Known about the structure:
Elements: H1 3-16, H2 23-29, H3 33-52, H4 62-72, H5 77-80, H6 86-104, H7 114-126, H8 132-142, H9 149-154, H10 173-179, E1 184-193, E2 199-207, E3 213-219, H11 224-234, E4 243-246, H12 254-259, E5 266-269, H13 279-291, H14 301-317, E6 351-357, E7 362-368, H15 370-373, H16 376-387
Parallel strand pairs: 1-4, 4-5
Antiparallel strand pairs: 1-2, 2-3, 6-7
Helix pairs in contact: 4-6
Amino acid sequence: MSTLELEKVASRFRARTPASLSPRACSKGFRSRAALSAEVLFLRKQLAFYQERQVQPRRLNDSARFSLILWSRLCNWKDALVIVKPETLIGWHRQCFKLFWKGKSQVGRPRVPENIRKLIMQMAQQNPTWGQARVAAELSVKLGIYVSPRTVRAYWPPEPERRGHQRTSSQNWRTFIRNHARSIVAYDFLVVVTARFRTLYVFLLMEVGTRRIVHCNVTAHPTAAWTLQQLREAIPSDHSYRFLIRDRDSIFSAEVDRQLKAFRVRVLHTPVRAPKANAYCERLVGSIRRECLDFMIPLGEKHLRRILAEWVTHYNQGRPHLSLGPGIPEPVAVFLPLQGHERHSMPQDCKVAARAILGGLHHVYRGKGSLREGRIAQMIAAGAALAT
């Protein structure tokens, strides 16, 4: 046979021979005991060099520990173990057995799906007066999710810790505000610095339900008598208010709280360092700064009072509020589009007039023409409906 033919036969033999039966693999598998002993001695000598130089080994991960446990079953590991103590390897072995039997001994019903667990926690947090039986009934009757009250209890969120022996309220502050918004007023003070670096105090009183600014005034000395006089001017004798919210700032006087009992109004003090409890008034203060005072420098008390009077009128009668739908606290005339007209177009004879507020800082837009003439009665009726 020629040399080319011999090479072809050899290539075919190599292609048909599996990797496990290759000459190199066979030579490794059938090595003599002398070669294996020399290799073990060579590896032990390298490990001895590390021990002589006192090199600390790296911390083993779980896979390395598991492999050492498996190999320790095949030899006398106490004589060959060097990198850790024998007690450590035995501890690893015990941990593997614990994990094994823990997986084998799982009993009981499987956990409910994650979305149902989240729904149970959501219902418990949103309805603090509900119990576990009520949540289980809501799930089964209205949603078709049949779980027992004991299952609901397993995923019930932990209750907040009570302070002392006082029982905490079953409803949060936001729920209380929403349920009594029409009968709640809140007041606060706003600090303003004039062009001459004089500090002035702005008194603000608002209705929480309608977001209407009931009263606004300016003074340089907010005494208890002055504050009480502002409340007398703002709250009429035939009012329907039940609660008045204020924070715990030192500017407020306890004498004012005692005098307010004659107004048939209960004063609610916000918690300590909790500005969100009086969030409506705090948001009003922020709106005054962002929309008015950040763009103007008051020259004095009269100038500031005139600026705020114009802005309060715009706030109550011309500024839309998203929390009202959007709507306006005191709608004088609500100009709605004509019946049957397209949403994104205006009639040809309709004109939009703009009126400047605070010298052009804001503008109020009104429609004229058929948009105004044909709907005056309906607009006033709609405005009255929004106000109530």
